[in-house]
Amino acid sequence: MHNACGGYSQDAYDRFFWYPATLVPGQGWAHWTPTLWADGITDKTGHSGSVPATRSDYKILIGNRLSVSSPVTLDLQVDFPKADSGTAHVEVVATDTIPFTTLRVRVAVVEDGVYYGGKTYNQLLRDYRPDHLGVPITIAEGETVTVSQDFPILTVWAVENCRIVAFVQDNSTQEVLQAIQKPVLTPVPDGIDDLTIDLVENDLLLQWSPVVVDTNGNPIEVDLYHVYRDTVPFFSPSPPPFDSTAEAFYLDDTGTVGDTLTHYYYQVTAVAGEKESGFSQAVGEFDGHVTNIEPPERK
Fold first, then answer.
1. Phi, psi (rounded to 5 degrees) for 52
2. Structural domain 196-284, CATH architecture
3. Which residues lie across from 127 on neighbouring strands?
4. Fewest CB atoms less than 10 Å from the CB: which of 37, 85, 124, 169?
5. Rounded-to-integer distance, Cα 197 and Cα 250, Å
6. Residue 269: closest CA among 233, 236, 292
7. 170-205: per-residue pLDDT in tens?
8. Alpha carbons 196 and 181: distance in angstroms, whole number
């Protein structure tokens, strides 16, 4: 998390100096910037000759830590009922032996897309809750501990770019055991605008492009798609949906084809978490009856 660029808080300053000084050869020990702490125990101070080389070194350090198994798992729920405040609920589950005795849960508010000094900063640390020291916990294998913290969202922050970051760290060793983050605002999936329908033997095949971004154009993972069906061409869908699917297609094999008195029309939405996109355009099938008419006799 960035802790500089003119928008940093006192918490960010305190957090930076919570870690020990690092060494820059030829210049000595100090709290140098930039410094990366990978899970709190492996540091990389200074540049590696160029920005790409530094990023490569950071990637290696982070990758090495990602390969280390953790004795805990985290779940994070973010409630944001008001425009200026919310509550983060962090659930810590011990799945293995915990060899640490000074664990703390730290909860932070960070913001992406902060422009300052000609640069745009992501993961800018805005606030720690309740402070940078965190909340002490005691947990053993098989146990679950939940920590809830209220957080503010100041008017000068772009709430749509804010996230809650939570992590479990041992104060004695500085090791971070596990981390998780979620946006303050639950993103809404973008709508489907290319729904098609085709006849496959006696069934109807609906197809569309997978939804991969939210309404702000940010990446999103869709859980499933709701399929709504009605016998009215321009219907207004309402819950519950006719069916759901995790794929970007749906085959209606309920015998909808061939009935000249009943015609079916469809709309589809994308669902991520508790948020559902707007409705797609309607597509449908229409069965007609052709009467056998004898041609007139030639005169």
1. -60, -40
2. Sandwich (2.60)
3. 109
4. 85
5. 10
6. 236
7. 999 999 999 999 999 988 999 999 999 999 988 999
8. 36
